[in-house]
């Protein structure tokens, strides 16, 4: 990672102090990364570094390039998307917020451009759906692309969210004083989260599509 951070700083003509300001750390911390003394402390900080350096997390970790790092090989237009050890419940919540990346999934750029309505693919991550409450959009075991650049809920979109320490995939509608969490499967009633409870909802990102399905 040391060499790749240095490479991106040079490519962008960015000073260490500028990267430090963008990420929210001291210049000494960035200097430590450049000199090989430590790395970003968690996935959120790593994502901020990748965003500031205009590259993907996969590139920083493994040298896997995305369309935003450099032009991909014309014979193999793929980018690698981090897949996390996370199951988001399409039903009862699953307490699983200590996520770690377990692998990289290569996805063809033409497929992404056709299926994901996003200005950038650098914020995409893959998680696994669990349960049946979001069928038919999401089935148990589906790999779901989450756009972590969307941290604020807009009405009638599906989001990955944390409520009371548990992870969910739910369609969200805004209601007076809070949010309504809706299951696409009609056998599950909607849940209204209002008042102080609504302030405890953490939006992790918007669900874009599954790796085998049409976009939502």
What brief labels describe this structure?
alpha+beta, 434 Repressor (Amino-terminal Domain), 216 residues, 9 strands, 2 domains, Umud Fragment, subunit A
Description:
- With 216 residues, this protein is of the alpha+beta class.
- The protein folds into two domains: 53 residues, 434 Repressor (Amino-terminal Domain), CATH 1.10.260.40; 117 residues, Ribbon (Umud Fragment, subunit A), CATH 2.10.109.10.
- 25% of the residues lie in helices and 31% in strands.
- The protein has a nine-stranded mixed beta sheet with strand order 2-1-3-4-9-5-6-7-8.
- Helix 2 packs across helix 3.
- The protein is globular, with a radius of gyration of 18 Å.
Largest sheet: 9 strands, mixed
Top CATH class of the largest domain: Mainly Beta
How many beta strands in the DSSP annotation? 9
Unreliable residue stretches? 66-76
Estimated helix fraction: 25-40%
- The tally of domains stands at 2
The sequence of SSEs as H and E is: HHHHHEEHEEEEEEHE
Please tell me the overall pLDDT: 81
CATH-defined topology of the largest domain: Umud Fragment, subunit A
Number of contiguous helices: 7
Measured between the Cα atoms of the first and last residue, the distance is 35 Å
Q: Please tell me the CATH architecture of the largest domain by its name.
A: Ribbon
- Strands of the widest sheet, in order across it, are 2-1-3-4-9-5-6-7-8
Strand composition percent: 25-35%
Tell me the overall shape: globular
Q: For the record, what is the CATH homologous superfamily label of the largest domain?
A: Umud Fragment, subunit A
């Amino acid at each position: 990672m040391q060499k790749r951070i240095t490479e991106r700083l040079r490519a962008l003509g960015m000073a260490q102090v500028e990267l430090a300001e963008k990420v929210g750390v001291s210049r000494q911390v960035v200097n430590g990364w450049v000199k090989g003394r430590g790395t970003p402390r968690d996935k959120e900080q790593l994502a901020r570094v990748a965003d500031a350096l205009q590259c993907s997390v996969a590139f920083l970790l493994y040298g896997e390039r995305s369309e935003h790092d450099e032009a991909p090989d014309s014979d193999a237009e793929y980018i690698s998307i981090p897949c996390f050890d996370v199951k988001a419940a399409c039903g009862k919540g699953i307490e699983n917020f200590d996520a770690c990346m377990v692998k990289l999934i290569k996805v063809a750029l033409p497929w992404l451009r056709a299926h994901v309505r996003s200005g950038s693919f650098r914020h995409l991550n893959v998680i696994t759906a669990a349960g049946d409450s979001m069928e038919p959009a999401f089935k148990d075991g589906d790999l779901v692309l989450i756009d972590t650049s969307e941290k604020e809920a807009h009405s009638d979109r599906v989001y990955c969210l944390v409520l009371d320490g548990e992870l969910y995939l739910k369609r969200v509608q805004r209601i007076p004083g809070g949010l309504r969490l809706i299951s696409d499967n009609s056998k599950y009633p909607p849940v209204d989260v209002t008042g102080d409870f609504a302030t405890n909802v953490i939006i992790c990102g918007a669900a874009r599509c599954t790796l085998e399905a049409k976009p939502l």
